[in-house]
Specification:
Elements: H1 13-25, H2 31-42, H3 50-55, H4 67-70, H5 77-98, E1 112-115, E2 119-126, E3 132-137, E4 140-145, E5 149-151, H6 155-160, E6 165-166, E7 172-173
Antiparallel strand pairs: 1-2, 1-5, 2-3, 3-4, 6-7
């Protein structure tokens, strides 16, 4: 159903818009749908914004589109992508260095870990989400990011090294070899 409005007096288009709105709002459609329909019918959308001209396409659409339609239609798109990919890799590397990002190795099941300031636990399995592990703690089973899990050294290696001791912070302290202690 398409309504074409011809305002009686060209200098008063708002009066015609109000009349069309009042007629359409009494139909079974919702008010928002009516306003959008009237807006599309009564306004000419042939003007292009700067963003539309930059991307060589109309950007704001209410209808879902395929991603192939959203790619810009530039004659130099391949050249741009070739020059842009090293720049993106460089930016990613700089960001990762600046924010101490590194890929941590996954922990194996039945590994003892320390969870931040909370408590210690045992790894049950890797979660279905990347970088997450399921950990059994005394209070229950929790899911934690790998970054927050610190591996606890095995107690068997600590007992074999009787010369070593642990400080209050948990650091393993060993005397220097030149002391011959």
């Amino acid at each position: 159903m398409v309504f074409v409005t011809q305002p009686a007096v060209p200098s008063f288009p708002k009066v015609a818009n109000r009349k069309v709105l009042s007629i359409l709002s009494k139909t079974c459609w919702g008010k928002r749908t009516v306003i959008c329909t009237v807006h599309c019918l009564l306004t000419e959308q042939q003007a292009y914004s700067k963003a539309d001209l930059l991307m060589s396409r109309k950007l704001h659409r209410a209808i879902p589109l395929a991603t192939s339609v959203l790619t810009p239609d530039w004659c130099y798109l391949q050249t741009f992508r070739q020059k842009d990919s090293p720049l993106r890799r460089s930016n990613a590397r700089n960001y990762n260095q600046r924010h101490r990002m590194k890929e941590l190795p996954p922990l194996q099941p039945r590994t003892y870990v320390w969870i931040g300031n909370e408590t210690d636990g045992i790894i049950e399995s890797r979660s279905e989400h990347p970088h997450f592990h399921t950990v059994r703690t005394p209070s229950g089973v929790v899911r934690r990011n790998r970054r927050h899990l610190i591996r606890v050294p095995d107690s068997a290696t600590d007992t074999a090294q009787s010369d070593y001791y642990r400080s209050r912070s948990g650091r393993l302290v060993r005397p220097p070899d030149w002391l011959n202690l």
